[in-house]
Structures are given as structure tokens and as C-alpha cells.
Amino acid sequence: xxxxxxxxxxxxxxxxxxxxxxxxxxxxxxxxxxxxxxxxxxxxxxxxxxxxxxxxxxxxxxxxxxxxxxxxxxxxxxxxxxxxxxxxxxxxxxxxxxxxxxxxxxxxxxxxxxxxxxxxxxxxxxxxxxxxxxxxxxxxxxxxxxxxxxxxxxxxxxxxxxxxxxxxxxxxxxxxxxxxxxxxxxxxxxxxxxxxxxxxxxxxxxxxxxxxxxxxxxxxxxxxxxxxxxxxxxxxxxxxxxxxxxxxxxxxxxxxxxxxxxxxxxxxxxxxxxxxxxxxxxxxxxxxxxxxxxxxxxxxxxxxxxxxxxxxxxxxxxxxxxxxxxxxxxxxxxxxxxxxxxxxxxxxxxxxxxxxxxxxxxxxxxxxxxxxxxxxxxxxxxxxxxxxxxxxxxxxxxxxxxxxxxxxxxxxxxxxxxxxxxxxxxxxxxxxxxxxxxxxxxxxxxxxxxxxxxxxxxxxxxxxxxxxxxxxxxxxxxxxxxxxxxxxxxxxxxxxxxxxxxxxxxxxxxxxxxxxxxxxxxxxxxxxxxxxxxxxxxxxxxxxxxxxx
Length: 549
Fold this sequence. Notes:
This protein is mainly alpha-helical. The protein is 70% helix and 0% strand. The longest helix has 35 residues, at 370-404. The chain contains 22 helices and no strands. The radius of gyration is 27 Å and the shape is globular.
């Protein structure tokens, strides 16, 4: 065991911020509060709270990686293979996904599978950092046991995730996670074996370092991170595999997708905590407030600008685009993080383990980039303005309009939000039903047409058929019927007559057949919202609660 370092250098910012942010104690307190009294606080909490946290915490952590790699010429050159070549390849794959959706599903599957390992690797790296700062040996058997503990924790996640059968997608959702469909034997026998090995390696590592003379107080950060890893990944997936029903919201599989936003924000806060320390020691962030502003701008630009650019072409919310955007950004983030934060790199170790600062002359190196760099920052700053606009519109303006009952104003708000791809087919359907109840069929038709165009479902088409029939719009009625008959599971009762030349009798028979079919049609997706992530959850992208009616 190496000689212990000074007590004051065991922490980055101090024991309280390090344990609460870096080791996840704050997440533990939040998850306890959300699980209190049956989880009523979690279910009653407005969805806007999680959305705001994603904007203020999760988005900036992507910006921290961007600054670390692209802001300085020396870093861009050092990581050229990953910052430029790998980025261009990834952009090409994302572009190809618009034409070949299976490529997008592969990217989504890679992203959601890699996500758990990315979180695990960060927890392991921070654990190793704390141990080395405390002078505890992290080599040989000790290192292998510690690494095995975190790796086996993730192995449970991988096996359970890919033993899941592919989920039925909602109409229009073409890009989704596709599990490998591992044989049932993996979940029945292999997962329990891996879980026992995980427990054994964890206990074995603790016993080993204590026997070698480590103080329990020095292990507190690592033990806390091990508990955090189990809470984020091992326990929920193992409980799901064993068909257990833990009472805590954090472990409840049915709430996994919604709760994952809190896990993602805790991971992001952890990342911002360590990158802020690194940036300050390196000399590029003497003031943490200014550093946070920079990463907020960079992260917001990455997430907000693409929907604004492509939104007018897509017209409305598109799950395929949103999941593809998340996959592209996160895979890029995972690739870069995998190469820039290795503790075996001399510069990273000097700052994160030995508290060494960079040389003054290199810290003052010119940023480079000139007008191009300033232009990129200006565009990214627009992302913050767009983010403020859409959050204000969706979290303040639209809810206030809904409470006031002004449906026309709500429709206008939805039109503005559609530029950011924030309005779903379900929201349009609900608005259409409200117009219908209010006795404004033409406005209801407009909303149902948008909803049916976004997701070809039974529910909006049935309403269109009824409303077009009442308004005696033969053209709209026939088109709505044809669209209904084209849905999976709906049988076409007769061929479509040419209403411009056909007899009134044939049109009448078609009308009766269409109305009868519409009354009997039932959507296989009614009453639920399928999750294109296969239950894996993702950073801040969660389907709204509720079902069609």
C-alpha cells in the first residue's frame, strides 16, 4: 500500500459536496423523498420539474465534454481520431438512418446498451480516484476485484435488458431499441450466478483492503459509489428479473422510464462536479459560475439547435427523430469520454489524483479558431434562447392557457412548440376532442388530421370518419376510411368507390360499411404508450403519461 497523502487532498471540493454530488448521497435523499408514503410525491410531481432539471443539469454535462475536447487547439489535435474522424462517421450513420430505419434502431440499441456501462465506468473511475487520493493501493488483485464488482453489476443489466422480447411499437415509431432476445436460460440461471459473483467480489474487495490496513473512513466514498451503482442498475434489473416488486420508486420497474430522468441528472451532476474541478485546476475555469455558463451554452446548443433546424421539415413531434438525436449525441459523448478521462493518462492523473496544475504558459495558450470559433459559440448561444422559449411555452404558457380553457390559444401554442418538436400526436388528439366537445368540428378535424398524420392510429381516424360524415364531406370521409382500412388488424370491408363517378348506392354502401368497421375497430395500443427504449430509459426523453380515449 502506498504512503497516505495529506488529509486535505482526499477531497476535491470538500467532504460535503464530494459525497453529495460526486458519490450520490443527494440522489439517495431525493429517491427517499420521492418514495415516501408510497411514492405519491413522484406521481403528483408535474412533468415540467424533470424537464427543467434535464435542461439545467443533464444538458450542461454534454457541454462539459465538448469544451474538454473542442475548445482548445491542443486537445482537438490530441483527440483528432475521435473528435473529428469518429464524429464524421457517426454523423454519416445518423444521416443514413433517415433512409434506412434499421440503422437508426441499431444506433438506438447501441446507445441504450452502452448507457449503463457509461454510468458504471464513471462510478468506477471516481471510486479509483478517491482511493488513490487516500493512498490506498489500486493495483493487482485489489484493482481486479474492484473492477469486477462494477463490471458484474453492469453484466446483470446487460443480460436482463437483452433477455427482454422486442416490444410492439406504436404506429409511426420505426426507430427503437431491439433487444438481442437472449434465451430464457440466461435470465433463469446465468443472472443469479452473475449476481452472486457480483456480491462475492464486492465483499472480497472490502475484506482485502481492510486486511491490508485501509481505514473504513477512507473507503466511505467508494462504498457510497458502490451503493449508488446498485441503486441505479443492479437492484432494479435484478428485481425485474426475479419478478420482485420493491416498494421504492427508484427500484420500481413500471416507473423505470420516468424515474430514469433523476438517475440521468444525478449522473450529470456527478460529471459536472469532477469536470469543474479539473477545469479549475487546469486553469481554464477560475470562476465556476462562468464555467457552468459555458457548458450550459454548449450543451443546450447540441440538444436544441437540431430540432429547430429540422423541425419545420418534420412539422411535428417525431419519436424517430428524437430517439435518433439522443442516440447520436450520447454515443458521441460515450466515445469521447472513453478516451479523455483515463486515470493512467499523466495529465489527468496529475490533476485528479495529485492536485497538480498545468504549466502557466500552456494554460494561457491561445484558444485558436478565430471567426469560426466565435460563430460556433454564437449559434450555441441561440440554443439557450430557443431552450428558454420552448420551456416557457411548454411549462408556463400552455398550462396557463389550458387552465383558462382557451382552445384556440392552446392550438397556437402547440403550433409554436412544433418548431421544437415538442407536441405529440396524443396532445393533438386530446385538443381535437376538446374542440369536438365544444361544438367546433372543423377545428377538431384539423387537430385529428395532425394527430393521424403523426401516428396512424385507430382513435383519431375514427373521430375523423364520424366528423367528416356529419359534415357531409364525402372526399374527407372516403380518405379517412381508406386510411383506417390500411391500418394493421383492420379488415377492408369493400373496395373504395370513385365518389366522383360512382352511383349514390355504392357510396351509401361504402359509408355504411366504413361506419360499421370504425365502430368495431380497436387499437392494439389503446390505453398505453409504448416505450421505444424497451424500458431502458434515456436521458430526459420520456413518453407522456396517459392513453387515448
